[in-house]
Design a protein that fits this description.
Chain lengths: 324, 295
Amino acid sequence: MLNYIKESFSQVFGNPPTRPEKGQQPEELLAIYQAKRGALSKADLEAAHLEHHGTFFRKWQRRRWITLIMVNFLFLVSYKFDVQLLEGAMTASRFVGFHFADLNSALQVMLAYKHVVLNLVIGTTTVFVMWLLLGGRTFCSWACPYHLLSEWAEYLHLWLVDKKVIKNHTFHRKTRSVFYVIFALLAIVTGYTVFETISPTGILSRAIIYGPGVALIWVGVLLLFEVFYSRRAWCRYVCPIGVTYAAVGTLSPLRVVYNAEACHHEGDCRKVCLVPHVLDVTIRGRAHDITQDVSADCTRCGMCVDVCPTDSLNYRFKGLDKLL
Amino acid sequence: MSEETKKVKRVLSKSRIETNRREFIRSAVLTAGVVTFSLAGLLPVVQGSSARLRPPGALKTVFEEQEFFAACIKCGQCVQVCPVNAIKLADLDEGVGIGIPFIDAREQACDFSCDGLQCVLACPTGALTHELNYPADTRMGFARLDQPKSCLAVQGKGFRGQVRGPDYKGLLRYDEIDRWNPIAVADHPYDLELCDLCVRQCPIEIRITQCVEKDRQREQAKREGTLARVAEQHGNECPPKHAIELQPIQSADGITRMLPVVLDGCVGCGVCEMICPVEAAPAIVVDIDKITNWG
C-alpha cells in the first residue's frame, strides 16, 4: 500500500517507473519470463494481435464515452428543462441537492480567496469520497468533457503520424508538476484563479451548459496543437486537474491490475494509453511481481483492458473480491 | 554492484542527449507560453475593463472586486436559479473574469422576483455572500440620472405602449398579473400621463408600497378585531429607505414636470435602466461601484 502510494506519486511527479532490481523479482515471475522467451515468433504475435483486432469490441471505451456524454448532458438537461438533477457546471454543482465541487477548482479558489468556505468543504468532501471510490483520475477519462474531444483529436493525430504527415513531439513529464506548482503559486500571489481562465474543462463544461463563447477558440487551439504537434499534450504535460485527481487515486481501491502470466509483452496497451509510462510494467522484465497494480497516474479509461489480447490487464476493486 | 549498473545507465548516446536537450527546450517553451497566456488573463482586471454590475451580495468593495473573483468557482449556479435570466457569465475576453457572473441591466435587470435572493442561496462558495437576507440589504451599484434632458418626466411627457418595443425580450414580475411568474415587458403595455416608469417599477419602491398596504390592513384588522386574517411579515423584509422618487420641478410654462431623484435606499438592481423608455440611451443608468462617485 505504502509502496503503491510512493511509486504513484513518483510517477505523477514525472519520474520514470522504478525498475525492479536484480534479485527483487520472485522466482515464479522469472520463470514466467523465461518460459515465454522465444515461445512466440513475431508472426505468432502478429496473428494474436490480428485475431484480437478481428473480434475488436471496445467495451470499456463505449461505456466510458456513454458515461462521459451522459454526465455532461445531464448538466445541460437539468438547466434547460429545469429538472434540478445536476445543477451548475463541472467546477461546482449540486447533484439532487448535494454540493459537489471539483477538487482542483475548489483548491484554486481556496488558494486565491484564502478562506475555507463551509459549503465548499462539504462539496469537496463529497467529491473526494466519490472519486476515491471510483479511482481518482477516473474523473479525467470518464467525466472531463475535454478528454473526449482530445481523444478524437488523438485519432486524427495518430492517423497523420501513420501517414507520415507529421511527427509527434514529446515534452518532459515533469512539466506538468512545474505547471501545478506555478498555478498554485499564481493563485496565492495574484489572488485570482489564474488556471481557471485557461482550463478547457471549465470552458467546455460552461459552453455546453450556458452556450458557446470566444473561449472555445482557446480549446480549438489546444486541440490543433494536439493534432499537429504533440499527442494528448494538455492532459499529459499541463493539466493540474489530473495531478489533483491522481493524488486522490493513490488511495483508491479501484485500479487496473496487470498479470504477467499470459502477457505477450507486445505493447498494444502502451500504444493506446494516455499515460503509457504507467504500463511500463508490461515490458518484459519490468514487473515487480506476477500481478502488479498500475500506478495512480492511470486514468482508468480501460483502453488497455480493451486492447489486451491476453486479458492480462483488468479492473480490480481492491478488497471487493475478498469480500464476495 | 548497484553503483556499477547506475554508472552504466548514465552513459547516453549522442543522439539521446540531443533528443533530451530538445525535449527540455520544448518543455520550457510550452511552460512559458501557457503561463504567459494565463497571465494575460489578468490584464482586463488590471485595466478595470472587467468592471460589471454583479449579482446581489457579490463580495466586493466600492473600489475592487478581487475577493469576488477569487471566491467565485465559475459554475453558474446563480445563472440557473434566476427567474428572469438576469445573470450571464463572462467570456474569455474578460481574462480571469471568465465564468464570473454579471448583469447587463439594460438587457435584463435583476427585479428580485425570486423574493429570496436565490442566486445568493445557490452560490456554493459564498462569492455571493450569504450574509444577505433581503433585496434591500444589497448594493450592487447606484442609479444616476445620466441624461436629464431626454427623461420623459423632466420633459413633462407621458408614455403609451410597449416599453422598449415589441421585440424586447426582457422580463419583469408584475404582482397584479402573476404573483409568481415574471412575464415579458413587451406583453405589458403602459398608458401613463406622465412617465414614472423608473419609480413605478423600482423593486424597492414596490416592496415599500406593499408593506405600507400590509400595515394599513393590519391596523384596520386590529381596529375591527380580525387580526388573524392578515399574514405576518418579517419586519426587516420591508426596505428601510426609499430608493427613488419623482420631485416636481418649478417651471414657468405651466407644464407639470418631474425629476427622478435617486435616494439612499437604491440597491443598484438596474430595473430603472432596463425600463427607461428612452430609445437611444436610457436617461437613467446604474453606476457600477467601481466607477461611481457616490462611494
